[in-house]
TrEMBL record:
<comment type="pathway">
    <text>Lipid metabolism; butanoate metabolism.</text>
</comment>
<dbReference type="InterPro" id="IPR046433">
    <property type="entry name" value="ActCoA_hydro"/>
</dbReference>
<dbReference type="GO" id="GO:0046358">
    <property type="term" value="P:butyrate biosynthetic process"/>
</dbReference>
<feature type="active site" description="5-glutamyl coenzyme A thioester intermediate">
    <location>
        <position position="245"/>
    </location>
</feature>
<dbReference type="GO" id="GO:0008775">
    <property type="term" value="F:acetate CoA-transferase activity"/>
</dbReference>
<dbReference type="InterPro" id="IPR023990">
    <property type="entry name" value="Butryl-CoA_acetate_CoA_Tfrase"/>
</dbReference>
<feature type="binding site">
    <location>
        <position position="320"/>
    </location>
    <ligand>
        <name>CoA</name>
    </ligand>
</feature>
<keyword id="KW-0808">Transferase</keyword>
<feature type="binding site">
    <location>
        <begin position="220"/>
        <end position="224"/>
    </location>
    <ligand>
        <name>CoA</name>
    </ligand>
</feature>
<comment type="similarity">
    <text>Belongs to the acetyl-CoA hydrolase/transferase family. Butyryl-CoA CoA-transferase subfamily.</text>
</comment>
<dbReference type="InterPro" id="IPR037171">
    <property type="entry name" value="NagB/RpiA_transferase-like"/>
</dbReference>
<feature type="binding site">
    <location>
        <position position="343"/>
    </location>
    <ligand>
        <name>CoA</name>
    </ligand>
</feature>
<dbReference type="GO" id="GO:0006083">
    <property type="term" value="P:acetate metabolic process"/>
</dbReference>
<dbReference type="InterPro" id="IPR038460">
    <property type="entry name" value="AcetylCoA_hyd_C_sf"/>
</dbReference>
<keyword id="KW-0443">Lipid metabolism</keyword>
<dbReference type="GO" id="GO:0006084">
    <property type="term" value="P:acetyl-CoA metabolic process"/>
</dbReference>
<feature type="domain" description="Acetyl-CoA hydrolase/transferase N-terminal">
    <location>
        <begin position="5"/>
        <end position="182"/>
    </location>
</feature>
Length: 446
């Protein structure tokens, strides 16, 4: 049978496709830009017929229709692999929950531990002449999802970029149960946020001066990593490579500035490797059919073993706060979940294993709460309930606008001294007093 005939046989409406979902089922919505739109709306329309449907996904770029139904918690529960703003609101409404797991572990977790995945539904690029539907910028863990699901429904979107890879970047029509042609909505975008502040630029400058020619870059999500990217694009650096969890707009700017060629990479030479991408249309257009870019599963991109093979690996990530012991919290405010573990720890560990590699955790020294009060991000201990994303033995460099320190191998009093030296001056005396109480301050420090 030709692929065209098979396509026609499997083509149904979204309303017909979602009839396979039953009460108490587990349903997977894919990942980020691959989150379904037409199928989601059709499933939401069935809400009154369903109860206790448990849905998995992550990093939502638009609010799903299932979030908007009446008494949503009775019908749907959202289980997120990584939180965003929409999901934080859903948590506060009682129908969404975070699933703590290192992002790199997702493919194995699906294949070995998930016993009940009844239906997978997600957006894909149009079928190619060989019968494959490309996952778009979402190789991530999608092949593992497909291998686990009882029923696979793809929602074709002509606007989905076709992201070339090396393996596990798409699924063949022979493995698909139903095909839905949606309304071809624009791919969900994730902007870079507000323009960089003076603090962002100060932190970025301290990091950029540590990057050698020929380095391989990983940038995390957030304003500071994006500012670092912008400064790299304007720098004299050359022969840079990319191996990252998340592909962001900053990489496009660096590449178009002629800074990236990947020729110094020990593996995947000449390729910009990533597990998923979320950004603006500029980025999606750049990734589309670009042989320089390599979409790959997250257990490859985020593996410390993979990262360690690449010399001069530079990892740059954000933090919510950090304590005087060097414990980094990058995902919660007390018990309130903000994002997720993601791949930060993998890249912190992998960068240190790389010959010449360095990992940088960056943050502003302070933040201002809604009541107008200024707080320090460098704390005596993390707030009660806060998550330790990076344990203290793993933390390498920490950077604020007041400087950068390397914590690797330091004793507790050395760490306290180093971190207090880059804290905001308004909080240093208070931090010293707390360090003394915790017996991690030497009188000679004074």
């Amino acid at each position: 049978m030709s692929f065209i005939k098979e396509y026609a046989q499997k083509l149904v409406t979204a309303e017909e496709a979602v009839k396979v979902v039953k009460s108490h089922d587990w349903v997977d919505y894919g990942w980020t830009t691959g989150t379904p739109v037409a199928l989601d709306a059709a499933l939401a329309a069935r809400a009154d017929e369903l109860e206790d449907v448990k849905v998995r996904g992550g990093i939502l770029l638009r609010e799903p229709e299932i979030f908007k139904v009446d008494n949503v918690a009775e019908h749907f529960t959202w289980n997120s692999w990584h939180m965003g703003g929409l999901e934080r609101k859903a948590i506060s409404k009682g129908f969404a929950f975070y699933s703590p797991l290192k992002y790199s572990e997702l493919p194995r977790y699906y294949r070995e531990n998930i016993k009940h995945l009844n239906v997978a539904m997600f957006q894909v690029a149009p079928m190619d002449k060989h019968g494959f539907f490309n996952f778009g910028p979402n190789a991530s863990h999608m092949m593992a999802v497909c291998e686990t699901a009882d029923v696979i429904i793809v929602e074709v979107n002509e606007n989905m970029p076709r992201c070339l890879g090396g393996f596990e970047e798409g699924i063949h029509i022979s493995r698909v149960d139903y095909i839905v042609e949606g309304q071809n909505p624009a791919i969900g975008e994730l902007g870079a946020g507000a323009p960089p502040t003076e603090v962002d630029r100060a932190v970025a400058q301290l990091i950029v001066e540590e990057i050698p020619n020929g380095a391989c870059l990983q940038l995390g999500i957030g304003g500071m990593p994006n500012t670092v990217g912008s400064m790299i694009a304007e720098s004299d650096l050359k022969d840079l490579g990319v191996h990252t969890e998340m592909y962001v707009d900053a990489f496009v700017d660096i590449a178009k500035a002629g800074k990236i060629n990947g020729l110094k990479k020990n593996i995947d030479k000449g390729r910009q490797v990533y597990a998923f991408g979320a950004g603006t249309k500029k980025m999606y257009d750049y990734l589309d059919d670009n042989p320089e870019c390599m979409s790959a599963p997250v257990d490859y991109t985020n593996s410390a073993k993979t990262i360690a093979q690449i010399d001069n690996f530079i990892s740059i990530n954000n933090a919510v706060d950090i304590d005087l012991y060097g414990q980094v919290n990058a995902e919660s405010a007390g018990v309130k979940q903000i994002s997720g573990a993601g791949g930060q720890l993998d890249f912190v560990q992998g960068a240190y294993l790389s010959k010449g590699g360095k990992s940088f955790i960056c943050c502003s020294s302070t933040f201002t709460s809604r009541d107008g009060v200024k707080h320090t991000r460098i704390r005596p201990t993390l707030a009660e309930g806060s998550t330790v994303t990076d344990t203290r033995p793993n933390t390498h460099y920490v950077v604020t606008e007041f400087g950068k320190v390397c914590l690797k191998g330091m004793s507790t009093w050395q760490r306290a001294e180093a971190l207090i030296s880059i804290a905001h001056p308004d909080f240093r005396d208070e931090l010293i007093k707390e360090a003394e109480k915790m017996q991690i301050w030497r009188r000679s420090n004074k």
